[in-house]
Amino acid sequence: YVLPMFIIMTLMYFVVCYALSLLSGYLEKRRYSY
Q1: Which of 6, 28, 30, 29 is nearest to 14 (CA)?
Q2: Phi and psi of 2, rounded to 5°?
Q3: 6-31 burial by CB neighbour count: b if 16+ within 10 A, else e?
Q4: pLDDT (tens digit, 0 to 9) for every residue of the chain, 34 residues total?
Q5: What is the DSSP string of 1-34?
Q6: What local confidence, expressed as pLDDT, does residue 33 receive?
Q7: What residue ranges do the domains of the chain occupy?
Q8: Rounded CA gap, 13 and 21, in Å?
Q9: pLDDT at 8 (0 to 100)
């Protein structure tokens, strides 16, 4: 039963990457709005 753990880790990795991209885009927007 290693597969569910692998799927969970992959999902968490994608979520972290997505959150980082959102955060970087948000910071870029804030910096340009000043």
Answers
A1: 6
A2: -90, -20
A3: eeeeeeeeeeeeeeeeeeeeeeeeee
A4: 678 999 999 999 999 999 999 999 888 887 776 6
A5: --HHHHHHHHHHHHHHHHHHHHHHHHHHHHHHH-
A6: 66
A7: 1-34
A8: 12
A9: 95
Residue 14, amino acid: F
Encoding tokens for residue 13? Answer: 């990795």
CA atoms within 13 A on the CB side of 12: 6
Predicted pLDDT at 29:
81
Amino acid at site 10: T
